[in-house]
Amino acid sequence: MKSIKLNFPSALQKFMPGIFEVDVEGDTLMDLFRTLDDHSPSNDISERMIDDGDLRPFLRMFLGEKDVKQQGGLSAPIKDGDELTVLMSNAGG
């Protein structure tokens, strides 16, 4: 089992209150999202972040300092002690 630290923007934290670290059984970022669904009160955090098997375009995710898109997207490997940071695009006028 891998322990992953999470840094999520406040707009997403409301769907996973109090979850800043999670233990994941699995080897990929997709396994992490399945685990987050199990811990989320609404059981749908992955639906808010994944669309048609890919990360939603308004999100940027980093495992450590590397963009997950450069590591294989949802198949990016995770390891014990990793830190996932999620950033959301801001737009407006």
Question: Care to describe what's here?
Answer:
The chain has 93 residues and is of the alpha+beta class. Helices cover 22% and strands 29% of the residues. The chain has helices at residues 10-13, 29-39, 45-49; strands at 2-7, 21-24, 50-51, 54-55, 59-63, 66-67, 83-88. The protein has a five-stranded mixed β-sheet with strand order 2-1-7-5-6, with helices on one face. A hairpin with a 2-residue loop joins strand 3 and strand 4 (54-55). The chain starts with a strand and ends in a 5-residue tail after the last strand.
What descriptive keywords fit this protein?
93 residues; alpha+beta; 5-stranded mixed β-sheet; two-stranded antiparallel sheet; 29% strand; globular
Brief summary:
The model has no long low-confidence stretch (mean pLDDT 87).
Topology at a glance:
Layout (H helix, E strand, L loop, with lengths): L1 E6 L2 H4 L7 E4 L4 H11 L5 H5 E2 L2 E2 L3 E5 L2 E2 L15 E6 L5
Parallel strand pairs: 1-7
Antiparallel strand pairs: 1-2, 3-4, 5-6, 5-7
Distance between the termini: 45 Å
Largest sheet: 5 strands, mixed
* Beta strand count: 7
Please list the strands of the largest sheet in the order they lie side by side: 2-1-7-5-6
In which range does the helix fraction lie?
Answer: 10-25%
Which structural class best describes the helix and strand composition?
alpha+beta
Q: How would the global form be characterised? A: globular
**N-to-C SSE series?**
EHEHHEEEEE
Rg calculated over all Cα atoms: 12 Å
